[in-house]
Design a protein that fits this description.
Layout lengths: L1 E5 L4 H15 L11 H13 L8 E4 L4 H12 L3 E6 L2 H5 L3 H9 L3 E5 L2 E6 L6 E4 L6 H8 L1 H4 L3 E4 L7 H10 L23 H13 L4 E5 L12 H7 L2 E4 L13 E5 L7 E5 L7 H10 L3 E5 L11 H9 L3 E5 L3 E6 L9 E2 L5 H7 L6 E2 L12 H4 L1
Parallel strand pairs: 1-8, 2-3, 6-7, 11-12, 15-16
Antiparallel strand pairs: 3-5, 4-5, 8-10, 9-10, 12-14, 13-14
């Protein structure tokens, strides 16, 4: 049987384009009812910035959206007014101090209190800045997106050991009309407008591998993508999944489509995956390893602990009944055992959308929170 799946927009790209439109042209692009929560939260935050106050801080609540949290901080610092940048308790624990330090170098007033970050926005001028983005590429992307407000022309990366570097290059592609130089980082060859969200597509790649009786057509999705997670097309070929721009997809939509189907495998290959640039893939890939069962080692996973939850340790704990788990500081090894007959898997998602997506691969799984899927893939349950 063939299934046709409409993927959500690439939220990372949508958020960057929305913010760049505001910074460069003062225009806030519209959103729709189908947009994920992160896009809605970011849109609401930009709307709040249109009415600055000098009497009491304007509250800019970004909930659990890490992108909005980091991207808006330098924009608020360079926008005259009093601001309170806040969010969930977990969000306020996520790494941001290197960005704060860089902004303070420009004279920005950014102070932490119990409620969040109190920011006194003012006109700033900094032709050159340096940032340590080892904990998140978003720290560098935040300065790229705010560059016109800061007068920034050169951004120096203190370390080149940056996780998810492809997302910084995505930001640079969105902002290529502004003359900002980042030594050692080049613009990507693929345009930023390449459609589809590969992070969402990953769920269906895993589904196809677990259900070889089905063919899945994903749209919009292009094999030529700026998104780092598009590497999964190569990973799944090693797992016996055929990946193509299928002719059968053309009658469904004029937009790019990718067709996937799994072939039987006598033996699952042992895989070693360097996920430094693809951290969001780890939950689904780890769950898939447990279910197949397969043997997958994930390298450079340290920064998973700084996500919406401590994904590294939560995954290890939650998957332990279904896999042999070895966890070190920067490596996760999952050797799957599968799910025993008669067992109903029960999972704690820690309100993390990527973990919920991963655990939904388990047949008959019971999850304590599925509402967190609204953050990135609001239509997933209906499509399932």
């Amino acid at each position: 049987m063939q299934y046709h799946i409409q993927l959500p927009d690439n939220k990372s790209l949508r958020i960057r384009k929305m913010l760049w439109s505001w910074v460069r042209r003062g225009v806030i692009p519209p959103i729709s009812d189908s947009d994920c929560r992160d896009v809605v939260v970011t849109h609401r935050a930009i709307v709040a910035m249109r009415t600055p106050s000098f009497a009491s801080p304007v509250v800019v609540d970004v909930e659990d959206c890490g992108a909005a949290y980091r991207f808006l901080m330098p924009m608020l610092a360079a926008t005259p007014g009093l601001w309170l940048l806040t969010g969930t308790t977990r969000l306020l624990e996520r790494p941001i101090m290197p960005l704060v330090a860089a902004l303070r170098e420009t004279g920005a007033e950014v102070e932490r209190d119990a409620d969040g970050w109190r920011i006194t926005g003012r006109h700033l001028a900094a032709r050159a800045l340096a940032i340590d983005a080892q904990s998140s590429s978003q720290l560098a992307s935040a300065l790229v997106l705010a560059a016109p407000l800061l007068g920034l022309r050169t951004l120096q990366l203190i370390s080149t050991d940056i996780p998810s570097l492809s997302y910084l290059r995505m930001t640079m592609s969105c902002t290529s009309d502004y003359p900002l130089r980042i030594p050692g980082v080049s613009l990507p060859d693929t345009p930023a407008g390449a459609p589809g969200d590969w992070s969402a597509a990953l769920f269906w790649f895993a589904y196809a591998r677990l259900h070889p009786e089905h063919t899945v057509v994903l749209s919009p999705l292009s094999l030529e993508s700026i998104q780092g997670d598009s590497v999964i097309a190569q990973w799944f070929k090693m797992l016996g999944v055929s990946v193509s721009c299928g002719e059968s997809a053309h009658h469904v939509s004029a937009v790019p489509c990718v067709e996937i189907s799994a072939k039987p495998l006598d033996d699952m290959p042992r895989m070693i995956l360097d996920v430094r640039d693809n951290l969001d893939t780890v939950p689904v890939m780890a769950a898939l390893a447990a279910l197949l069962p397969a043997d997958i080692t994930f390298q450079n996973v340290r920064n998973l602990q700084y996500k919406e939850s401590d994904r590294l340790h939560v995954l290890a704990e939650q998957l332990m009944p279904y896999a042999e788990i070895e966890l070190s500081e920067n490596e996760l090894h999952v050797k799957g055992k599968g799910v025993s007959k008669g067992v109903k898997p029960v999972f704690d998602t820690h309100h993390d959308h990527r973990l919920a997506m991963a655990f939904l691969l388990f047949p008959g799984a019971e999850l304590n929170d599925i509402g967190c899927l609204e953050k990135s893939y609001p239509g997933l349950l209906e499509q399932m």
